[in-house]
Automatic annotation (TrEMBL):
This is 3-keto-5-aminohexanoate cleavage protein. The keyword DNA damage does not apply. Its cofactor is Zn(2+). The keyword ATP-binding does not apply.
Length: 352
């Protein structure tokens, strides 16, 4: 993204879109006070986050035994109820479905491609499904301090090892087919990117005409194969994202608020919730709703407005697709592809 002299003025930035992730699939009941278990609790978590200022809901579903659900019927039921309870929220299904291990010591891994493709068939359909690009280690505990997980299920050695050794399976065989299915069902992909190499892969897909549409993405700074917490890496990622993209910052544990504060100041958007973080200060628990409220206060302190649900939909350009590669490059503020025989830098076309 390019920054002009007035780019840091909040009145010149997009209104802040707050993603809430209150379903914490890696945790078990008792790990946090606000983990929903019943369907009513799932719906109430959405309502509470929306009332606090969140306009995007990142969705997982938990069975009554506390484990993450992989049943499409559960997702269908929750989606139907959410459409009624929070009609203004952007409903975003977590594309891993649920990566929590079923039993202590079992592998924590994402599901088969066929199962994940079924997310494009959920009824009523979600606005978005998150999509990983590129198989990568996802060692979510690498950046956790002992105090972060003390007293939780992940502190148990077998569970800790399961999450330490987790891998995101997201090679071209998966993401090329998944993008096609999402487009067919008019579901916007929300790209979850671990680092610049994955951003470059997405940009190549755009230039080759594989993907033609709005570029909505998260910078996932959770370590363990994904980006870490170095602020220079965060700023560089923001700099490299195309001007027309919509970027959200995602971090973990007590780094969530500092990383998001940088993102708010630079015009990006934010994600919070118990899926990412359980803490305010060291040793002080913080609910998903309190994390949303914290982002609202930080944004207000620097003068940046909070997007409403309809405004978030407009910022995300939900329901829009672009006609071809040239339109996608132009709408994202990217220079056109090289024409045969052209030498030197490519410049944006100017219509006179």
């Amino acid at each position: 993204m390019h920054f002009l002299d007035d780019s840091l003025y909040p009145e010149n930035q997009e209104k802040l879109v707050i993603q809430a992730a209150p379903y914490g699939p890696e945790w078990l009941p008792g790990d946090a006070d606000d983990l929903p278990v019943t369907m009513d609790e799932h719906v109430q978590a959405a309502v509470d986050c929306h009332n606090a200022g969140a306009t995007v809901l990142h969705i997982h579903v938990r069975e009554l035994d506390g484990h993450g659900s992989k049943r499409m019927s559960m997702f269908n039921e929750l989606m139907a109820r959410l459409r009624e309870a929070v009609p203004d929220m952007v409903l975003q299904i977590g594309g891993s479905i649920s990566f929590a291990p079923e039993d202590e010591g079992a592998d924590a891994k994402w599901l088969s491609y066929d199962t994940r493709h079924m997310l494009a068939e959920i009824t009523p359909r979600p606005d978005q499904v998150t999509i990983a690009i590129g198989t990568s280690q996802m060692n979510i505990v690498e950046l956790f301090d002992d105090e972060d997980i003390e007293g939780t299920s992940i502190a148990k050695p077998a569970m800790y090892q399961a999450y330490r050794d987790m891998v995101v399976e997201a090679g071209p065989e998966f993401y090329l087919e998944h993008l096609k299915r999402l487009r067919t069902n008019d579901i916007q992909p929300h790209f979850q990117l671990a680092h610049l190499a994955q951003l470059e892969t997405v940009e190549r897909m755009i230039r080759k005409g594989v993907y033609s549409g709005p570029l909505v993405l998260n910078y996932v700074a959770i370590g363990g194969g994904f980006a870490g917490r170095h602020p220079a890496d965060l700023v560089e990622f923001i700099r490299r994202v195309p001007d027309g993209a919509v970027l959200t910052i995602e971090a973990s544990m007590r780094a969530v608020a500092p990383m998001n504060t940088v993102g708010i100041a630079l015009g990006a958007h934010v994600r919070v919730g118990n899926e990412d973080n359980l803490w305010r200060r060291k040793g002080e628990r913080m609910s998903s709703v309190q994390q949303v409220e914290q982002m609202v206060r930080i944004a207000d302190a620097v003068g940046r407005d909070i997007a409403t649900g309809p405004e978030a939909r407009e910022i995300y350009q939900l329901g829009e697709w672009y006609a071809d590669t040239d339109e996608t490059l132009a709408r994202l503020g990217m220079v056109p592809n090289r024409r045969p025989g052209h030498r030197g830098s490519m410049l944006r076309d100017v219509t006179r």
